[in-house]
């Protein structure tokens, strides 16, 4: 069935009203959503005792139904996310939901290692942690909850979410969807849980609760630092300021197209997206030409100052600008840009505040470099040691190798838009929790399990 924009808006409004006035009892109760964090944790613990006993086939049935329901509700959740947070692009959020539904690893990611020889058989099995606590962002709210849940449930865990308060409605819609998916195929309720009003206090209760051994945090550096200070094992997906480097050997026309496509995807909300360009001198003019061909608007020095004052109000990131499209941002400084404008560009030094700061907006500062070594030095400086993501356009394998070693990021995309790293136009699986700070990298089901060695000595070897 094709749903037009007005029908979709009516559906979203009805869902948002339901979520706003949701009672914790009665027919409209959202499954897995509690008033009290301790109550939510207890419910998840009870559900985990059931999940742990389920066969891998049963877990996979639940996950398959989560995938199905995510695809069915992708457009609705995309619209809800933009409506509630005021950030992002509905069409791109639909694609992100489709991507996670189709390419997030399930139980197939839980592999057994075996050694067999004269002295018997030894297995390494991956077992659940139990109840996992998860903190999720407002930039990819339902996407992170759904993606985390698929991997964590595949590992035999249940999950307690403390969503970002700015995205609580769409987040709890996703929690309800996951529980519906479980119940529909014979699984338990409360396989994932959340609270109606997440706060710092509910987060603190979750972080300190004795029944939660593992915390996964997807968000800014502050929340990751809090998790890593909790005394529990933490998986931290923190900040990034991904540079994209372009050298003189690159296909400049393709590089410009890829950079704009990656930078503007969901209005630059993905943490992996291109945030600034470092280019060698001899190709800068050609690169700018093709960037303009792909919908970039070049701002003057005066306009840069105005834009800086708006998006970095009093030196701090203006949250009202995050995730807005280029034309909206330009309108804030009095520029009525043409309909084809997708991105804002300018030249500046690496210390320029619109280049140095991770903005999560389709704004690309271009930093000139005299040669590849200078470009690498500047790009490494701009990444600020987050070790998150970096990108490069080049046909020189030595240059690619040199930059890859120097930047040392969890993600390094060559000659493609940044989103290729998540399996969209590239190989590999999808995730929305990239644990650069704690070293796990792109998380999947196996990330949320612990190793168990099972040994049978002097038996079960029949060679």
TrEMBL record:
A GO MF term: acetaldehyde dehydrogenase (acetylating) activity
Pfam families assigned: Aldedh
Superkingdom of origin organism: Bacteria
NCBIfam families reported for this sequence: PRK15398.1 (NF011927)
Oxidoreductase listed as a keyword: yes
PANTHER family in alphabetical order: ALDEHYDE DEHYDROGENASE-RELATED (PTHR11699)
Domain Aldehyde dehydrogenase: 35-426
Lineage of the species this protein comes from: Bacteria, Bacillati, Bacillota, Clostridia, Lachnospirales
Record's keyword terms, sorted: NAD, Oxidoreductase
InterPro entries per UniProt: Acetald_propionald_DH-rel, Ald_DH/histidinol_DH, Ald_DH_C, Ald_DH_N, Aldehyde_DH_dom
Protein name as annotated: Propionaldehyde dehydrogenase
């Amino acid at each position: 069935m094709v749903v037009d924009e007005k029908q979709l808006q009516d559906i979203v409004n009805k869902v948002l009203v339901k979520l706003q006035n949701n009672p914790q009892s009665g027919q409209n109760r959202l499954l897995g959503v509690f008033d009290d964090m301790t109550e939510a944790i207890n419910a998840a613990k009870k559900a985990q005792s059931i999940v742990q006993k389920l066969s891998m086939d049963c877990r996979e049935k639940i996950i398959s139904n989560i995938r199905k329901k995510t695809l069915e509700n992708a457009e609705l959740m995309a619209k809800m996310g933009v409506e509630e947070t005021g950030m992002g692009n509905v069409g791109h959020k639909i694609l992100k939901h489709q991507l996670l539904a189709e390419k997030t690893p399930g139980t197939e990611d839980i592999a057994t290692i075996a050694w067999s020889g004269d002295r018997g058989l030894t297995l390494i099995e991956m077992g659940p942690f139990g109840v996992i606590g998860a903190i999720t962002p407002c930039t990819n709210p339902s996407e992170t909850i759904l993606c985390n849940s698929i991997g964590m449930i595949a590992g035999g865990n249940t999950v307690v979410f403390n969503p970002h308060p700015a995205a609580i409605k769409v987040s709890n819609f996703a929690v309800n969807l996951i529980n519906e998916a479980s119940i529909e195929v014979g699984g338990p309720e409360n396989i994932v849980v959340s609270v109606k009003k997440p706060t710092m206090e509910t987060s603190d209760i979750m972080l300190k609760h004795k029944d939660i051994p593992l915390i996964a945090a997807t968000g800014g550096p502050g929340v990751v630092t809090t998790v890593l200070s909790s005394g529990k094992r933490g998986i931290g997906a923190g900040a990034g300021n991904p540079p994209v480097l372009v050298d003189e050997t690159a296909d400049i026309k393709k590089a410009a197209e890829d950079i704009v496509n990656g930078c503007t995807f969901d209005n630059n909300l993905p943490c992996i997206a291109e945030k600034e360009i470092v280019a060698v001198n001899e190709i800068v003019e050609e690169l700018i030409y093709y960037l303009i061909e792909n919908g970039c608007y070049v701002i003057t020095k005066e306009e840069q100052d105005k834009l800086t004052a708006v998006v970095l109000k009093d030196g701090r990131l203006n949250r009202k600008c995050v995730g807005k499209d280029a034309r909206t941002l330009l309108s804030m400084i009095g520029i009525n840009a043409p309909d084809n404008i997708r991105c804002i560009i300018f030249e500046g030094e690496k210390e320029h505040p619109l280049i140095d700061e991770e903005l999560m907006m389709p704004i690309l500062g271009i930093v000139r470099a005299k040669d590849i070594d200078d470009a690498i030095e500047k790009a490494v400086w701009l990444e600020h040691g987050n070790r998150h993501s970096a990108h490069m356009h080049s046909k020189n394998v030595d240059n690619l190798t040199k930059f890859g070693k120097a930047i040392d990021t969890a993600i390094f995309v060559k000659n493609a838009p940044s989103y290729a790293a998540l399996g969209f136009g590239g190989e590999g699986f999808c995730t929305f929790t990239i644990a650069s700070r704690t070293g796990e990298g792109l998380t999947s089901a196996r990330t949320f399990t612990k190793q168990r060695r099972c040994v049978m000595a002097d038996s079960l070897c029949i060679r």
